[in-house]
Amino acid sequence: MSKLLNQLGLATRAGKLVTGDELVLKAIRSSEAKLVIVAGDASSNTRKKFRDKCATYKVPLMIGFDRERLGTSVGRPERVVLALTDQGFADMIAKEIVKTSEVEYIE
After folding, report:
1. Where does the record place the Ribosomal protein eL8/eL30/eS12/Gadd45 domain (predicted)?
2. What CATH code is assigned to 3-106?
3. Could you give the angle at the alpha carbon of 8 between the alpha carbons of 69 and 83, nearest 5°?
4. Would you list the domain boundaries of the chain?
5. What local confidence, expressed as pLDDT, does residue 64 receive?
6. How far is residue 93's CA from residue 28's CA, in Å, rounded to a whole number?
7. Residue 99: its pLDDT value, please?
8. Binned average pLDDT, 10 residues per bin, the chain of 107 residues
9. pTM beyond 0.70
């Protein structure tokens, strides 16, 4: 498991990560979300919805990994979308994103 996925687990334990469509959308709208991560195997409709919402609210978006690996990293079953609500964790993970080849889209 990559260092980035381990950091997602750390953010979860610190209470600085939300998962699930509705909670993530709420975090984006309220400007709580500092970085949104969508699984690479999410439906094209889901990817488009979060790409558009993040662009509107100027929240960085990353598409990568698969739903199983994202879920495992945060200690839950498959997860399609995650949002980091702490700028420190978002910055730490953004630095790791540059180093990994498993991310297909960063905005």
Report:
1. 3-90
2. 3.30.1330.30
3. 95
4. 3-106
5. 85
6. 18
7. 66
8. 83 94 96 94 94 94 90 90 94 78 58
9. yes
SS3 56: helix
* Residue 20 backbone class (left: φ over 0; alpha: ψ -120 to 50; beta: rest): left
Among 10, 34, 23, 26, smallest CA distance to 84 is for: 34
For residue 102, what pLDDT is reported? 57
Q: Are strands 35-38 and 61-64 parallel, antiparallel or unpaired?
A: parallel
Structure tokens at 9: 């687990």
Which letter does DSSP use for residue 58 in this model? T
Q: What single letter denotes the amino acid at residue 5?
A: L
